[in-house]
Amino acid sequence: MTNKVTTHWKGNMQFESDNPNGKTVLMDTSPENGGHSSGLSPKAMMLSALAGCSGLDVVSVLDKMKVQLSDFRMDTYGELTEEHPKYYHTVSVEYHFYGENLDENKIKKAVDLSIDKYCGVMEMFRKFATVKTSIHYHNK
């Protein structure tokens, strides 16, 4: 299967990229790099894609397991190399789960399935970075 996105230059340092579902995203860079910070940075979008991919897996598996959450978020950190081309050499994904009487075993299983089996973006990251993950339970 081949995915295609089209990315158009919108002037200055802005680019708009579409998605196979028709949605678009605006990319830009910071003022110190000639942009206006009016869009998402491409490297930060990579971290968002990683969290989004894994998060979709986790929510889907937990739904099938009938696990209830009051909230769920992921904090994703990327450490860039010093020299050009700068890329993420180490990435950390922290999974934060909130709720009452959280079923930690089922949550861990859902996260592990995403990390080890389902998340293609995480597998791509492993090709060039060390990927670290952690789970944090916030019982109310």
TrEMBL record:
Q: Which InterPro entries match?
A: KH_dom-like_a/b (IPR015946), OsmC/Ohr_fam (IPR003718), OsmC/Ohrsf (IPR036102)
Gene3D superfamilies attached here?
3.30.300.20
Q: Where is the signal peptide?
A: none
UniProt region (Disordered), positions on chain = 19-39
Coiled-coil stretches:
none
Protein name per the record? OsmC family protein
